[in-house]
Amino acid sequence: MKSFSELTEQEILALAISSEDDDARAYMGFANALMETYPASAKVFIEMAEEEHDHRRALTELYRKKFGEFIPLIRRSDINGFVRHKPAWTLSKLGIEAMRQRAEVVELENYRFYTQAAERSTDPQVKKLLETLAMAEKGHESLAARLGEKHLTDDAKESESEAERRLFLLQVVQPGLVGLMDGSVSTLAPLFAAAFATGDTWETFLVGSAASIGAGISMGLAEGLSDDGKLTGRGHPLIRGSAAGIMTAVGGMGHALPYLIPDFTIATWVAIVIVFCELWAISWIRYKYMDTPFLKAAFQIAVGGFLVFLTGILIGSA
Q1: CA 95/CA 218 separation, integer angstroms
Q2: How many domains, in total, are found in the chain?
Q3: Torsion (CA) 117, 122, 124, 126 in degrees, nearest 10
Q4: Disulfide check for 286: which of 163, 261, 297, 307 has CB 3.0–4.6 Å away?
Q5: Three-state DSSP string of 1-41
Q6: Domain closes at, from 152, 187, 215
Q7: Closest Cα to residue 246, out of 268, 227, 229, 224?
Q8: Quick count: other Cβ atoms within 10 Å of Cβ 234?
Q9: Which H or E run includes 80?
Q10: Are residues 276 and 141 in the same domain?
């Protein structure tokens, strides 16, 4: 690999041409990934891509004037000193903020590249173009921010915030809530059945732990394998499955842990109090994120939880 200081003016222009083309392709890829969910930000990246194409055309015109039609393919990855970034196409999976940060980093790198290249250039025309491109990159604090001021109006930002909220609900809150409800409610029956059947806190804890962890694994797999998120827009199955599985286990372990207390009566009353706290938390989450009236959510959860709780006591006492 060559270092930047070893490049000729011809190679510098060739590198600049390929870099502008790579950046334009990356920005168009970002725009394509964001068009449906974040149309305002997609327009930002489209304009950024168009500006990169303008830079490439100016560089190509000057190169052909100075060195002819053949342009060797030289990329940043071929030169020592450039930062090694993740492939641009993988950033579309990391979210809009990762794309914006990448754009800002690229702008800063391009400014430094053009500034240093202009200092090394001896040809007046080449030097002038490189200085112009450096100023274009440095003209504003951030190219992404400058274009954002044009396209990301208050209404657009509010719309995108709502889109982010919907994605968060679909990918994290909804499967997490389902898991918490399943773990908190479905494990009540086996836990309290074991408690009242054995009267032994340690045995009850083992049963509760097995029910909680087993339910967590089952719920996580069921949610993760239900769909891949491509058609439904519900996000990556690993995120949804993890949220559902972890919250299912947490919901069950919440009222299993009190049975580490040796005294059976105290452990049972602590577990009952925790159950009420869990049911209240579920009701609040439904009220906060699912637009369900709190009293309605509390009533629905309380009735379901009480029936399962009563079932466990009756079976355990039989």
Answers
A1: 29
A2: 2
A3: -40
A4: 297
A5: CEEHHHCCHHHHHHHHHHHHHHHHHHHHHHHHHHCCCCHHH
A6: 152
A7: 224
A8: 20
A9: strand 79-80
A10: no
Q: Show Cβ contacts of residue 19 under 8 Å, excluding neighbours closer than 6 positions.
A: 75, 76, 110, 113
Written as one letter, the residue type at 261 is I
Instruction: Please state, in angstroms and rounded to a whole number, the distance separating the CA atoms of residues 72 and 234.
Output: 44
Going by the DSSP 8-state scheme, the letter that residue 3 receives in this structure is E
| Neighbour count for residue 228 (Cβ, 10 Å) | 12
Q: Does one domain contain both 191 and 313?
A: yes
pTM of the model: 0.52
pLDDT in tens, 2-60: 777 788 899 999 999 999 999 899 889 888 888 887 788 888 888 888 988 999 999 99
**At residue 12, what are phi and psi to the nearest 5 degrees?**
-65, -45
Give residue 221's domain range: 158-317
| Nearest to 117, CA basis, from 102, 128, 107 | 128
Asked whether residue 123 falls in the same domain as residue 184, the answer is no
Q: 100 and 231 in one domain?
A: no
Q: Any idea what the Cα angle at residue 289 is, between residues 271 and 179, rounded to 5°?
A: 45
* Pick from 162, 130, 115: nearest CA to 66: 130
**pLDDT tens across 139-177, in order?**
544 555 655 665 666 666 565 555 556 666 666 677 777
Domain boundary among 94, 121, 152: 152
In this structure, the answer to whether residues 209 and 134 fall within a common structural domain is: no
